[in-house]
Design goal:
Blueprint: E1 4-7, H1 13-22, E2 24-27, H2 34-41, E3 45-49, H3 55-59, E4 66-68, H4 79-84, E5 88-90, H5 97-112, H6 115-123, E6 142-146, H7 150-161, E7 165-169, E8 180-182, H8 185-191, E9 194-197, H9 211-217, E10 222-225, H10 234-242, E11 248-251, E12 270-272, H11 281-299
Parallel strand pairs: 1-2, 1-3, 3-4, 4-5, 6-7, 6-9, 7-8, 9-10, 10-11, 11-12
The protein binds 2-keto-D-gluconic acid.
2-keto-D-gluconic acid binds at residues 51, 70-73, 96, 275, 277-278.
Length: 309
C-alpha cells in the first residue's frame, strides 16, 4: 500500500511526478473543500510536502511523521508544535545558495544603476531627448550582510568579486570569517553603503530592520531584502523611500506576498522582484528532489538528509 502524503502548496512538475510515482498524494492547496478532504484522509496521512503548516493542521493528521518543506526558510511551519508531536521537519538548504546569491548581486546592480528604469527610459523614447542620469557603482562600497549563513557567505564571495568591502551582523561572530563583525545592527547600517538581508524569518527576527536601522543606513544607503518581508518594518521603509531618508531598496520579498505596497510602484529608487531568489529550473529541480529524498529517507527508516527538527 503506498503511503499517503498531503501536499500543501504547488510544487514543480518534476517533484509532483516523483511524489506521485511513490506515494498517494492528496493536494490540500487545490481542494475546493479543505475540511472535507482532511476529514476523509486525515487519519491516513504520514507525510507533508510543502510549507505553511500550523499546529491545527498537525492535529488533523494523527499519523503525521514528517513535514518536508519546499524551501530553506521554514518560518511558515510551527516547528515547536512539530517537535512537541514528534513530527520531523526538513528543509532544502545549500541547493539554492548560488541562485539566491546571483539574484542578490543582480538586484544590487539593477538598483545601483537603475537598470529597469533605464530600460523603460529607452522604451518610452526618451533617449533622443538626453542621456539617462548618472548612477552609482558597487566597487569601493561597503556591504553589510545581515545573516552570514550559507547563502550570506555566497553573497559575500560575489560582493568581493565586485570589489566591495564586506562586513556582517548576526547572532554571533564567526571566528573563521575574515569580515568585520558588528554586534549591533544599527551600527553596521550606519557604516555600510548597502544592507543585504539574508537571515531567517520568524519571531526571532521580526522587524529587526527597524526605522532606527533604516535611518542609520540613511539617504545614501541601499537596502536589499532577499530573506523575508517580516524582518523589515515595511511601513517605515515605504515612508522613508518616499521621503528619501532611505536612499533606495531592491526587494525580492514582502510582508504580505503577493501583495506589494502600492506606494512602491511609483518610486524610482526601488527595484521590485516577485520572490524569485531560488526560482530557476536548475535550483527548483534540486529543491524538489531534496523534498522527495527526505520523505523517502523518513519512510525507509533512514537518517533524514536535511532535518531541522
Ligand atoms: C522559495 C524561499 O521560493 O527557500 C526559501 O526559503 O524563500 C524560496 O526558495 C519558497 O520557499 C517556495 O515556496
Amino acid at each position: 500500500m503506498p503511503i499517503d502524503i498531503l501536499q500543501t502548496s504547488k510544487l514543480l512538475a518534476s517533484c509532483e511526478q516523483a511524489l506521485a510515482a511513490k506515494y498517494t498524494v492528496h493536494k490540500l492547496h487545490e481542494a475546493a473543500d479543505k475540511e472535507a478532504l482532511l476529514a476523509a484522509i486525515g487519519d491516513k496521512v504520514r507525510g507533508i510536502a510543502g510549507g505553511g503548516v500550523k499546529a491545527e493542521l498537525m492535529d488533523r493528521l494523527p499519523r503525521l511523521e514528517i513535514i518536508a518543506n519546499f524551501g530553506v526558510g521554514y518560518d511558515s511551519i510551527d516547528t515547536q508544535a512539530a517537535k512537541a508531536r514528534n513530527i520531523r521537519v526538513t528543509n532544502t538548504p545549500n541547493v539554492l545558495n548560488d541562485a539566491v546569491a546571483e539574484l542578490t548581486i543582480g538586484l544590487m546592480i539593477a538598483l545601483g544603476r537603475r537598470i529597469p528604469q533605464a530600460d523603460r527610459y529607452v522604451r518610452d523614447g526618451n533617449w533622443p531627448r538626453g542621456g539617462f542620469p548618472l548612477q552609482s557603482e558597487l566597487n569601493g562600497k561597503t556591504v553589510g550582510i545581515l545573516g552570514l549563513g550559507r547563502i550570506g557567505k555566497e553573497i559575500a564571495i560575489r560582493a568581493q568579486a565586485m570589489k566591495m568591502r564586506v562586513v556582517y551582523h548576526g547572532r554571533r561572530r564567526q571566528a573563521d570569517e575574515p569580515f568585520v563583525y558588528y554586534s549591533d545592527l544599527a551600527e553596521m547600517a550606519r557604516d555600510a553603503d548597502w544592507l543585504v538581508i539574508i537571515a531567517p524569518g520568524g519571531k526571532g527576527t521580526e522587524k529587526i530592520v527597524s526605522r532606527q536601522v533604516l535611518a542609520a543606513l540613511g539617504p545614501e544607503g541601499y537596502l536589499v531584502n532577499m530573506a523575508r518581508g517580516s524582518l523589515v518594518d515595511e511601513a517605515a521603509m515605504v515612508e522613508m523611500l518616499q521621503n528619501k531618508t532611505l536612499g533606495g531598496a531592491a526587494l525580492d520579498v514582502f510582508e504580505q506576498e503577493p501583495q506589494v505596497p502600492a506606494a512602491l510602484f511609483g518610486l524610482d529608487n526601488v527595484v521590485l522582484s516577485p520572490h524569485q531568489g531560488s526560482a530557476t529550473r536548475q535550483t527548483r529541480d534540486k529543491m524538489g528532489a531534496l523534498v522527495v529524498a527526505n520523505l523517502d529517507a523518513c519512510f525507509a527508516g533512514e537518517p533524514l538528509i536535511s532535518p531541522v527538527v
